[in-house]
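Dear colleague,

Following up on yesterday's call, I've attached the two folding results inline so they're easy to grep. Please treat them as preliminary; we haven't cross-checked anything against experimental data yet. The first protein's sequence and structure tokens come first.
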Amino acid sequence: MKNIGFGILWFLVFFVGTTFLGGLIVGMIAGGNDPANAVAAGRAFGENYGKGIFLMSLVIAVAGSFFSWLPGTRFQTT
């Protein structure tokens, strides 16, 4: 049960972090002169790459939890 909880947590970290970082970089590049361009570029990034980021985050979190690669998902022998 603990692995499932940490898997969900890692999925959220990967998804939100990657989406935020990608939108931030694209927005900073496009919005150098006009903030309205930054908003449009951030939305376009989310629309174009959001599904791929979602799926890759899900795959990484599930595989990392299943194989105990991610912190918090390791089996502990007591």
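Below is the second protein, in the same order (sequence, then structure):
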Amino acid sequence: MDLPYCKSDNKGRVERIVNYFSDEKPKLDKSVCDVGSGMGVFPVEMAYRGWDVTAVDPDPHNVQHLNSLGEINVYVGYFPQVQISQKFSLITFNKVLEHIEPIVETLSGAKAMLVPQGLVYIELPDGEYALKEGVNRQEFFLEHFYAFSMPSLTILAKRAGFTVEFAKRIRDPSGKYTLFAFLSLIE
């Protein structure tokens, strides 16, 4: 959690989200549900920035650690099966969906937990650009079922009932090729 912004994938992600919400959704409350929170760098940074943060993770050890941080509400379980009564302005899947079967149903589960005008933020491994450097890159393993291109990200969003508001291809400070997107419900 001590990496500077220029070297942290998570802190760069926080900056992208905070800026996008300031510009595009200034009237929405600052509530976020982070799915697959791991060790909690992203949710804690969001809490530091004034967001009401809920974290969901299936690993009891991660949840115990997240609870010890004291900044966020934490649930152990799998999304969307975990029972959360709150609705959110933002639901995030940061390098999570590529690990999940069934992917469309998991992403679709976010629809019921969004406030009106709420968004989903996803980050996915960019297989198209990573492949240019060879198949031995981490985008193609680490228990990944999928790697993505910009068209396949758009197809995933549509199948789950979302439209892409904004998407971009980046290379994270860690060197990972990443696609990120803000999704809204199909009207």
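For the second protein, one point worth flagging: The chain has one domain: 5-185.

Best wishes,
A.L.
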